[in-house]
Design a protein that fits this description.
The protein is mainly α and about 375 residues long. Helices cover about 75% and strands about 0% of the residues. The chain has a single domain (about 55-370), classed as ABC transporter involved in vitamin B12 uptake, BtuC (Orthogonal Bundle), CATH 1.10.3470. A two-stranded antiparallel sheet has the order 1-2.
């Protein structure tokens, strides 16, 4: 009996002290686990992590390799100042609609009507100013409002009817295209007609030759158009909005996980409507650039704008599943499309091979995106 209390005390002390050893060991193990995991991480896993953090790395490397490759294939013709200036002019419209497409894809959606909105806006601008006698500023504003209203309609249908963006914009693509043909009567306004009445609509096609402003005579007639400068300005502005404002964070959060975004107080529907409306506005600005680029207003222009916009965004590292991507990557993607098409043309290959190459680039970009996304899962 005398030994019983001692036994209880021993048991009590052992019971109190027992958790201390495992707790210390657990803490040490917990501290060591990340370090060990980092040490034993495979090179492929590290590359995957790096690309997840810096998604624009791949498009930049592809662009760099493309430039180097075509420099060898096409020789000095590729790096001729006039050819480089031409590439920039060609990718301006692709980049502009690509920026609009990037905003939508970041929310895990897609907009198949960007090309139709752009062309419809250009037709409204041109026909009101040239054929209807509407003052040019009002005609221009009407075109901008047309694209913006089309984008707003897309966002409203997506959020109110809860339909997939692919289906909604596939339908509005046909609707906007039909309205375009009905309103324009499938007639093209020629360069001379616009130049006489509304030269402002062609202002984005004005070429600023570099040697006129800098002592660089070796550049010859190479220069930058007003449309290219406008596109660059909107790219910087959009990138700033996405990176530095609450709205930009809401866009990424909505695309990454809309349910969680809703729980933390983000108005997901309002964000989606704003994104589609902004995309429509950017497409209407692209319409102005389009008029300056071709010098005319054609209801059949921009036939490949939808595919080109998706191509620029996807090749540029924007995930089709939403929540990841950047405007910088989209600009790289647009340049990749322009460089490959131009380089293959200089190499003497037919347009079919150019489209084949672009298609393969899309498949590779999506496959890489899937591989990088596995890191998060």
């Amino acid at each position: 009996m005398k030994g019983a209390p001692r036994r209880r005390l021993t048991m009590t002390n052992e019971t109190e002290m027992a958790p201390l050893v495992p707790a210390a060991a657990t803490a040490e193990a917990a501290d060591a686990t990340p370090a060990r995991a980092e040490e034993h991480r495979s090179p492929g896993r590290r590359v995957q992590q790096f690309l997840h953090v810096y998604p624009t790395t791949i498009p930049f490397l592809v662009l760099l390799l493309g430039v180097i490759g075509f420099a060898f294939i096409a020789g000095g013709r590729f790096f001729h100042p006039l050819n480089l200036s031409l590439i920039l002019q060609q990718v301006t419209i692709i980049a502009m609609v690509g920026i609009a497409q990037t905003l939508v894809i970041l929310t895990a959606g897609i907009d198949l009507s960007v090309g139709a909105m752009m062309v419809l806006s250009s037709v409204v601008m041109g026909r009101l100013a040239v054929l209807s006698g509407v003052p040019v500023p009002l005609a221009f504003a009407a075109g901008i409002l047309t694209g913006t209203a089309c984008g707003f309609a897309n966002g409203l249908v997506v959020t109110r009817l809860r339909l997939p963006p692919f289906i909604v914009t596939l339908g509005t693509w046909s609707v906007f295209g039909a309205v375009n043909l009905l309103y324009s009567k499938n007639q093209t306004l020629r360069y001379q007609e616009i130049a006489e009445v509304a030269p402002f609509l062609q202002a984005t096609g004005r070429l600023f030759k570099i040697h006129d402003y800098l002592p660089l005579d070796f550049l010859g007639g190479a220069g930058v158009t007003t449309g290219s400068l406008l596109m660059i300005a909107f790219a910087f502005l959009t990138a700033y909005v996405l990176r530095r404002t609450a709205f930009g964070r809401h866009v990424y959060a909505t695309g990454d996980d809309p349910e969680s975004a809703q729980l933390v107080g983000i108005h997901v529907d309002r964000t989606l409507v704003a994104v589609y409306t902004l995309a429509g506005f950017l497409c209407s600005v692209a319409a102005w650039i389009l008029i300056g680029r071709i010098g005319a207003v054609s209801p059949n222009a921009g036939a490949t704008a939808n595919l080109d916009s998706i191509t620029a965004a996807v090749i540029g590292g924007t995930s089709l599943f939403g929540g990841r991507g950047s405007i910088t990557g989209t600009l790289f993607g647009a340049l990749i499309v322009g460089v490959f098409r131009n380089g293959l043309a200089l190499a003497g290959l037919q347009n079919t091979w150019q489209e084949l190459t672009v298609g393969l680039l899309i498949i590779v970009a999506v496959a890489l995106d899937q591989w990088i996304r596995r890191l998060a899962t």
